[in-house]
Amino acid sequence: MIQTGLTNVTNAARLGRPRRRGFTLLELFLTLSMAVVLMTLVNAAFRFYAVDMDSNDMDMRRTMLASAVMQMIEDDLRASLHPEPLDTSALETLLASTAASATGGGNSGDSGDPGDAEAAGMDDPALEEEPVTSVSGVAVLQTPGLIGDQYQLQIDTSRLPRLEEYAMLMDVDPGNLADLPSDLKTVTYYVQAADSIGIEDPLAKLDATTSTTAGGLVRRVLDRSATTFASTSGNLAALGQTGELLAPEVTGIEFSYWDGVTWQIEWNSDELGELPLAVKIQLVMVDPLVAESEQEPRLFQHVVKLSMAKIIEEEEEEDLSGVGL
Hints:
transmembrane helix, single chain, alpha+beta
């Protein structure tokens, strides 16, 4: 009787509370699968966010670098110098009158004959200095001004020398030309090809494994007298190794010059007599740490207006229809 009662109590207790059951193999497999899928989605979300943030950061850095480079070129262009040609008509008149009086072959008051001015030596072509252009693209203008083509720009700027420019006199590097503190500088912009003999990247010197010359945008600021002497004396190798590598990210640069009607790809202030009304600058930039095949170059454009420029007046052709020509 006692055993039967205990059995009934035990059965009643089992019926009164739920039975403990474990996870089946199917439930465990489904749970692990859902966890793996969830972790994969979370990892993909974090990776997409990191790549997107890195891409946005690189775009922002390129934009800031392009803005700084454009501002530097704009400051140099706005400081460009081009003096007005000297009016020597009064001197020509005086010399012509003096020559006519000395020879006794004409009236001293008749000073308007251009032949007398030529006799006085005022229009001798040998006295006119022609611009000297070297094979490396370095040009020496007769008067300070601007000369450039589609891929290189050279301007003469006028600024007061800064105090740190006097420290450059202590530079003992034989590969660089000695610059002189002066208020008349020749500034040149061009893109240096990679693996060429030219300007070395200062940061590349810290890496012993790098033995090639980096390409990029080069800015050379040198005294105009030193530039003229180096160009005319044939010291082009040292001139090509003098300058500063501004941005290795710049792989291409183009200049265009506005004459008031169309954009020109070349300009020479000695031949045209004036500065261009505006200069258009186009920069092509890439990330030097990423292969070019894996990225798309970005193009930046900026137009700089020159306040000292004047419209070039074209000479009117004489109407010769009345004489049958």
